[in-house]
Amino acid sequence: MARFQIFVTYKKGIFDPPGATAERALVSLGYDEVSSVKIGKFIQLEVADGTSEERVAEMCGKLLANPVIEDFRIEPVEEA
Amino acid sequence: MARFQIFVTYKKGIFDPPGATAERALVSLGYDEVSSVKIGKFIQLEVADGTSEERVAEMCGKLLANPVIEDFRIEPVEEA
């Protein structure tokens, strides 16, 4: 079993509604120190041994992320 | 400006509908090597200098995560 972590974030300049909402909500709860909140996806993937990072990138481009508005970063997880 | 990254994941045993859907969809697209997909949140927070990790944990407990069904992990981001 191989594991990958994938971080999906909005591309620069793309509006992030959940992030903007959380930001306003935190400030209105009294957390004035907050200046920016961005909310993306954190994906934990388990695949068969030997699956390449390129193959995972293909899955991201086809299904896990929306390449039009999102960037993704893939990190292999080292087993403990 | 201080930065934190927050990883929000479902607690063990809590069903993750988007993850289960992505898993089935990937397998049906021919990615048979996929055995598990879990989808959580990846939050990038910018706060005033000197904001403690405890304070960020408080924000998570109150608004950014649902402590009933989700776990969160906070990582300070070192400036380059």
Show the helix and strand layout.
2 copies of one chain form a homodimer.
Chain A: E1 2-10, H1 17-28, E2 34-47, H2 53-64, E3 70-77
Antiparallel strand pairs in A: 1-2, 1-3
Summarize this entry quickly.
The structure is a homodimer of 80-residue chains. The first copy, chain A, is built from 2 helices and 3 strands, in the order βαβαβ.
Model description:
The structure is a homodimer of 80-residue chains. With 80 residues, chain A is of the alpha+beta class. Chain A is 30% helix and 39% strand. Chain A has one domain (2-77): Phosphoribosylformylglycinamidine synthase subunit PurS (Mth169, Chain: A), CATH 3.30.1280.10. The first copy, chain A, has a 3-stranded antiparallel sheet with strand order 2-1-3. Chain A binds chain B through residues 1, 7-9, 19, 22, 25-26, 29, 31-48, 51, 55, 59, 62-64, and chain B through 1, 7-9, 19, 22, 25-26, 29, 31-48, 51, 55, 59, 62-64.
